[in-house]
Design goal:
Layout: H1 2-34, H2 37-52, H3 56-59, H4 61-64, H5 81-102, H6 117-128, H7 142-150, H8 153-163, H9 170-196, E1 201-202, E2 207-208, H10 209-224, H11 256-263, H12 283-287
Antiparallel strand pairs: 1-2
Helix pairs in contact: 2-5, 5-9, 6-10, 7-9, 8-9, 8-11, 10-11
């Protein structure tokens, strides 16, 4: 009889331990799934405003959850209707990504985003190691907007690659795989459009599109501070680099810390700034600000 009761006690203890482990697993997945909302909000607002002149507050206000309106967002001056249409499609895709994540986890309201002319100009100035004159304006024309777009989806892509092996739940991995597939496609389209134009001089700077991408990629490597995980369009010994990948042509991965260091522009996950003046939202991002 004593052995029987002992077996029951062991079984109950095992079930409790198992339940606790499952809860912790689910919580870790939730944190990893909600973190990318920071990047998805940024992409959604930048692409929506760039292509239409308005953002989430008009398209899907329920997704913003009352978060502050983005600073400095505006309609871009597109001459190429195909590029404008591509950016609009990207915008709708990002709205879909926000919905997909929020259908899985509770998420959080839109953080304060600075996607102003001056915010992008600061990144480009840092990439060149000097202030450009006139300051770089992402909304001024097709090429500038594509270069500015080069700054964003790739960072989120590397974050999804980094998060995927840490997820415990099959449904979580499925969601991230779906998000990663489209983010990779966006990055490939942007790189393809820029690659086709990589020898073009960006007016009025007299610097090629390829050099702009090289400098941006080098800056992201520097800010991330975890080695080479980025490459511009001219950064190889061959004709160029249409896609970024390691020696096995596999996508690079980044941790939330690395991503925050890059999008804050500070190289430090505890010091907000750049596109996120008050830092990102969610458990992971806020934990570094305490």
């Amino acid at each position: 009889m004593a052995t029987y009761y002992m077996s029951i006690v062991v079984l109950i203890a095992s079930l409790i331990a198992s339940s606790t482990a499952v809860s912790e697993t689910i919580l870790s997945d939730v944190n990893l799934l909600e973190f990318p909302l920071n990047l998805e909000y940024l992409e959604a607002e930048f692409f929506l405003f760039g292509s239409t002149g308005y953002g989430l507050d008009k398209v899907a206000p329920e997704l913003a959850e009352g978060g502050p309106a983005p600073v400095g967002a505006k309609l871009a001056k597109f001459n190429d209707t195909v590029i404008k249409d591509i950016i609009y499609q990207f915008a709708l895709q990002e709205v879909g990504h926000l919905r997909a994540i929020k259908n899985t986890v509770t998420g959080f309201p839109r953080p304060l985003l600075d996607i102003s002319h001056s915010s992008f100009a600061k990144v480009i100035d840092k990439a060149f190691g000097r202030p450009l004159r006139p300051s770089f304006d992402p909304y001024a024309n097709d090429i500038n907007y594509l270069i500015a777009s080069y700054l964003i989806p790739y960072v989120g892509l590397t974050g999804y690659v980094g998060a995927n092996p840490l997820l415990q739940n099959a449904s979580s991995r499925q969601l991230v795989a779906g998000l990663l597939g489209v983010e990779s496609g966006q990055d490939a389209v942007i790189r393809g459009l820029l690659y086709e134009r990589r020898a073009w001089k960006v007016n009025p700077y007299g610097v090629t599109v390829g050099e702009f991408t090289d400098r941006i990629s080098k800056l992201r490597n520097q800010l991330g501070n975890e080695g080479v995980k980025d490459e511009g369009l001219d950064e190889t010994f061959s004709a160029g680099s249409i896609l970024a990948g390691d020696k096995y042509s596999l996508a690079y991965s980044r941790t939330p810390k690395e991503i925050l260091r890059i999008v804050y522009g500070s190289g430090n996950e505890t010091i907000p700034g750049g596109f996120y003046p008050k830092g990102g939202n969610g458990h992971i991002a806020r934990s570094y600000l305490k």
